[in-house]
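User: Sequence in, structure out. Go.
Assistant: Echoing your sequence, followed by the structure tokens.
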Amino acid sequence: MSTHKLSRRYVLKSLATGAVSAVAIPTVIPRSALGDDATPGANERITVGVIGTGGRSRLLIEQLPSQGQILAVCDCFLERAEQVNAEKGQGRWAVYQDHRQLLERKDIDAVIVGTPDHTRVLVCIHACQAGKDIYAEKPLTLYIREGRVLVNAVRKYKRVFQVGSQQRSMAMNRIACEFIRSGKLGKIRVVQGCNYTGPRFYEGLPEEPIPAKLDWDRWLGQTPYRPYNRQLHYGWMAWWDYSGGEMTNWGAHGLDQIQWALGKDDTGPVDIRPQGSPRDMNAAVHMKYADGTPVRLELSPGPAGGAIFSGENGRIEINRNKFTCNPPDLIKDLPPQEEIDKWRDEVALWQAKYHMENWMNCIRTREKPVADVEIGHRSITIAHLANIARYLGRRLQWDPVKEVFIGDDEANSLVERPQRAGYELPQIV
């Protein structure tokens, strides 16, 4: 067996602390100096606002390509935005608590949205309406319906939208997915992915004092009102109200690779079967596409950033910027060495610099980036389908064209969720 890889040093500490150097601030180029379409020219900096300043956004700030220039940061926890401005912006950036105020600025071309999952879509839609191009972290959505609303908004307002699925920009992932998609692996017999864990359900937590400078109502956004508790604020990814657990967190990467390798970016599975009882949010899930290709989310452990593809001509395991082949010489043509070498530094496997470069290049050309909003919506829909099937504990039939469950009102009630007053999604068609 042959292994092609770049590095496995996942420096989690860097993500948790956001311990990165300050970003130099070049001279501001106002949008009034741009062309008639307000699109930056080839030699002009793309001005950027950052909405959400947690650990991931801090890393993105550090990795912002040289053609980008940050002007402002925003967080409903104002203290955190102020800290980022002091540490990364040397006090030069404007600081906001309400993202709508940042979006009002005419001198900002684009935004990076790194908010928690449950508030991401509404912020992105507001950015579309404000005429900003968007780089949004994964997972793209909290539930399926809001993904389609977001796609509609991006198309209506003609925005360039990159989902933070940075493996789409990694050379090793691309070469392996292209090989599978070309048919050289032969008919796919089975795809095996990780059995990503799901979220927990809220059963009450003791109320704690709301930290100073935190707009707790804005943090909750569309979700049901809950008294403040630190476990919710900092551990939101564990809870159904705010996230889909690891199924949507790491699953956003692994399932995206399945979609990419199988050439299914515009569709999804049609048959979903949980291997457990109702509300078993850790059950394995088996799926099938319309062409009969089976996908089994059952590995523990496994390639969290990819999957194992077994075909007539061999077997390929894809993970983050690496792949393994059996037979060893199945894939002979590797990317150029310089493409491999650029991923060898200590944060390589977490970085998004080259993914962000693709986004910024597309801002100039107005082309779709490699992880366009439709791709992000379709990939994370699979994770939502898996969690819904786990919640109900039974087989489901999905129509990926109409994006509804077939003959199942109960399942269809879970495609969307009620939104709190003041945080409703606009109707965009």
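User: And one key feature?
Assistant: Residues 215 and 416 are 25 Å apart (CA to CA).
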